[in-house]
Design goal:
DNA-binding; 3 domains; DNA-binding (chains A, B); Rossmann fold; homodimer; alpha/beta; 434 Repressor (Amino-terminal Domain)
Amino acid sequence: MSDVARHAGVSRTTVSFVLNDKPGAAIPDETRRRILEAIDELGYRPNAGARALAANRSGWFGLITEIVTGPFAAEVITGAQSRAWGDRRFLLIAASEGDPAQEAAALDQMLEHRVEGLLYATTWHRAVTLPKVAREVPTVLVNCYDAEGELPCILPDEESGGHRATRRLLDAGHTRIGLINLDPAIPAAIGRREGYERALREAGITPDPSLVLPGWATADGAYTAACELLDRPAADRPTALFCGNDRMAMGAYDAIKERGLRIPHDVAVVGFDNQELIAAYLRPKLTTLALPFEAMGTKGVDMLAALAAGQPLDTHRVTIDCPLLERSSV
Amino acid sequence: MSDVARHAGVSRTTVSFVLNDKPGAAIPDETRRRILEAIDELGYRPNAGARALAANRSGWFGLITEIVTGPFAAEVITGAQSRAWGDRRFLLIAASEGDPAQEAAALDQMLEHRVEGLLYATTWHRAVTLPKVAREVPTVLVNCYDAEGELPCILPDEESGGHRATRRLLDAGHTRIGLINLDPAIPAAIGRREGYERALREAGITPDPSLVLPGWATADGAYTAACELLDRPAADRPTALFCGNDRMAMGAYDAIKERGLRIPHDVAVVGFDNQELIAAYLRPKLTTLALPFEAMGTKGVDMLAALAAGQPLDTHRVTIDCPLLERSSV
DNA sequence: ACAAGGAAGTAACGCGCGTTATTAAAGCGC
DNA sequence: GCGCTTTAATAACGCGCGTTACTTCCTTGT
């Protein structure tokens, strides 16, 4: 920077002023031009670390995920990344791999790097408890919530997702709709079932509990559940299946095809999660709901930016819609 | 740090010495203990940015990928991450999204952050040309190579992968093995075919070109190719299919099942890429080869660390084996 | 007794930059 | 010509730390 100043025949301070567009500093166009020219000629590049030190503003946000591998974390990263870079902020990413020791180490490093905020994302919607050092810095939870309800969090709107899926099947003329659910105790299963039942009631149909079976989040479990539903007498048999996730839809597909039934003519299927590799390559392609991971990532950075700037949050608990992706299974 | 020094009754220099285990500095245990105690009591945490500035060693490596989403990039990140954190180095990750402007912007930021090395990873094995600013810093290519052959690169060993897959099928007793290949012009397709033919020749079988069909990297293309192979007269019909990737194996599965043939009893299948969501959930589960993305990521960081330390590289072009994952389709 | 040498610790500079207070020059009204 | 304001630019300090050169005190050997 001193070289640039010398080259342009000004002081280092002046260079700093044009570099930062310092408001209140009166720099004639001619001087500014000379400086920019010198920067260009010398190939000068400001040192981000030194700027951070001097300005007491690191520009870093931390992002802790359970696993980096896996489509979900990657989407959160993508969303957070794009939003952060656009704002000239940067993401220090770490994976805890579910190991508290690694998580603590990651947290330590982040604090040493003086992150201005922390994003904590989980693979599936659930409750978490953070180490208390995390309180030293603004923190936002993504796809999870803390039991005490103290930290702001961003969650998928499971209920409206369940409603939207069911509604889609109702619109296609189905009235007996089976729900092959996840583990019934987890928030996703609870919310989606609520949405499912609300959609039915709104259509004047009383939800039939015998049409709701757990599929235990596996293709095999869903296959078993689907077999049970499809082997009922014609009058009791559902003409559509809403599956808790896409892997389960895969199992359901097998059960349906095995019986010589066609998708979607005989049985329609809606999945959940939009795992591209499954949903887009099943035959026929699977209509499913997407978990809004990318949107959750960008929203997380937004909230962090607000918190880091000392602004209050309008909402402590944000839910984001799960959009329906139409393919060919309905 | 000054607070810690005052609290422990020593100078800041001494604190720095114990913090960095400065060799040659004689610190009595008693003094060291007092200092560590003060650190603990005051909750002192060194400022990573300031250390980097003073030591003139940022500790950052840059990682540029085409897409963050998608299983491949995520694995590279995982591998690089774990290796880097273990070495107290950190990864500044950016996605180019295939956009040269974004790529240039990312590169700029990385250089401003004074990365000590750059990892450039692509989604599929191919040639690339980097912007020349990338030459300002040690660079290693991952899953790609530069046409000039100047930059060190890490590539999957496609040939040995093709050999291993074919060998597995030969060992299971198959002698007529169909190859439903990727776009025949890309390095992956060429290498794998070479390995396939070498394995056949080693088993005393002359490769039959009519058994090699392009599947164009899609499930539909592979379905078509598989149909063509399976509809041949029994004597010409392959009893095993080696598919260019797992999505194509999916298409092959459909063709096989449609004909009432069983996997693996009537037709065995081997895929490539190990896309967990497909391979592990197809029924039966798919035996496939894994692209060693994670290993490539860790190796990349290793090479970068060596380069950043000024050590020469033993090999300019590293290939890494593609391990076989046995499941139930052979 | 004294020199030599090691142990323990420190003052002071510099890393690359942002920022504040201050100065010097230029413009303006009378 | 003199005061006053605006414009243009700078010297100097501090951010939090690593490091070098230097000082002081204590042993040890003869």
